[in-house]
Prior knowledge:
This protein is 43% helix and 23% strand. By secondary structure, the chain is an alpha+beta fold. The protein has a six-stranded antiparallel sheet. Strands 2-1-5-4-3 form a five-stranded antiparallel sheet, sandwiched between helices. Strands 13-15-16-18-17 form a five-stranded mixed sheet.
Amino acid sequence: MSGPPHRPVSDQDLETVLDRMADGFFALDADWRVTYANEEASRVLGTAMSDDAVGPEGALEGCHLWDTVPGSEETQFYDEYHRAMDTQESVSFDSYYEPLDTWFEARAFPSADGLSVYLRDITERRDLEKRQRESLHAIQRLYAVSSDNDRTFEGKVEAILTLGCEYLDVPNGFLTRIENGTQHVEVSHADHPLLQPGETCPLDEAYCKRTIERDRLLTVVDASEEGWVDDPAYETFGLETYIGGRVEVDSERYGTLCFAATTPHGEPFTDTQRTFVELLTRWVSYELERQHAATRLERERDRLDEFASVVSHDLRNPLNTAMGHLDLLAAESDSERVPPIERSLSRMETLIDDLLTLARDGVQVEEFVDIDLVETAQDAWATAQTADAELSVELGRGEIRADGSRLRQLLENLFRNAVDHGGTDVTVRLESLPDAAGFTVEDDGPGIPEAQREEVFETGFTTSDDGSGFGLSIVAEIAAAHGWTVSVTDGRDGGARFEFEDVEFAAE
């Protein structure tokens, strides 16, 4: 059984197919005259050709390509088409044609009779690639600015405002602080006279009034067409283009970061542009929070330094005087009242030392070195007044990154705590954590009730009449200063077990 007879494709059928193509196709003879052009090619070539070159009803057949397209002999199209004819090899290339403001992808296939050319408009693709390159470059520059430790905060903000203006193609970028119903321009890169640093205006007359009411960016691309003409902000600033986001510090409103122009933008901001502005607002928020935290920390350090000075001078000096007189009294008398006084003064000295440790050492450790944990533990044990207690050390890893003096203070407090609560014959074990980076200190004493384990690290908490309540608080402060976590649980023999995990080391 045979099928229908095969009908050869006619020239008319081929032209119909070619005319339906979205891409342009045209053919040239050996003399560079157009022998055929589909609808898209006719549109492109007809637009490029001089008005008197096109035949009746826009017919292009017979037109000489290079004579009818002004300036065509100076283009890449001329060079590549001639190369294809000379070598009789096909060519492919992308080229921008300025008179049409269009990028084309061209493919030319030569033969002895002429040249067949396919044209595809790739302007949108090239524009997208350009925007992607610009976005990547902007992100790289943002990173370079934000990580430049030699710049001040104001210098960094001015640099990113300049960067944002270039990326968004607007002349004004500014950071505002909003306080008591007034907008203050803090930093700016702008040519608008009302957007210079130090300028203020009532919030009701600012575009930022609407910005701070939104969770996302406020964007305006043509204020006149978007109903802003009667708004006080438009009357004051005359901005046609605006994009801005809310800046927050510690979840509280600070102000806005904005970019603007007095001319319409022409087209909506792209998702990438909006994301970039959101990234800038978050970076500024983070930097402001960091600044505020640094200021608070500096004030806290000043307060602690003052406190330590008072403790050292106003408490230790009279204590030293009292202990000196007690030594003289003990030499002159064997009164039974001397030992209790000596114990009380010794306790006061311990309290002062603990207070100074909390005041001076409870801050972030800035320099870590490799410390021999075994040797440090033995030194701490020797000075911790451990009497007849026993220390057992079983470490899989003998070194630890730490501040040596603070680590020793931590261990001394743990050892002293074990003896104070477990008795002079308590056994203390120092071991490595089995499944994490860190170490444990546990004893075989009475342990810590589960209900009290959340409180034991609080300043002033103690279950002993003689305890200062500072020992384990100091332990927690020193651990935090190293970036370690500390927890307490039951030891294998029912005593207290303190676990210290180096989270940062584990992450590496």
